[in-house]
Design brief:
By secondary structure, the protein is mainly α. The protein has helices at about 15-45, 50-75, 80, 85-94. The radius of gyration is 19 Å and the shape is flat. Residues about 85-94 have low confidence and may be disordered.
């Protein structure tokens, strides 16, 4: 078995545009919910946790801004996304 390696013989199937857009919407919903949780936790944080939640809020906000900008460039109506609930995402993932 000298210098043997395995090569994947199956082609990796590229996702369709609809699948990509669905994943983008799910990512926006998930990130929005993570931002809400970080904001709630920040309200009750003490000591060093204040810095931690500040960082989480900032990073989630930047990620959400990026994802929304990406969605708009793809022609996805962001107003519709704001009405969607995170529970829908959980049901499909599970």
């Amino acid at each position: 078995m000298k210098d043997e390696y395995y090569v994947r013989e199956e082609k990796i199937i590229e996702k369709t545009e609809i699948e990509k857009e669905t994943e983008l919407v799910k990512a926006i919903i998930k990130t929005r919910e993570e931002l809400k949780v970080a904001n709630c936790n920040f309200e009750y944080a003490q000591g060093e946790l204040i810095d931690y939640y500040t960082y989480q809020i900032k990073s989630n906000q930047e990620k959400l801004d990026y994802l929304i900008k990406l969605a708009k460039t793809k022609g996805i109506q962001v107003d519709m996304i704001h009405g969607m609930r995170f529970s829908s995402y959980d049901e499909e993932a599970g």
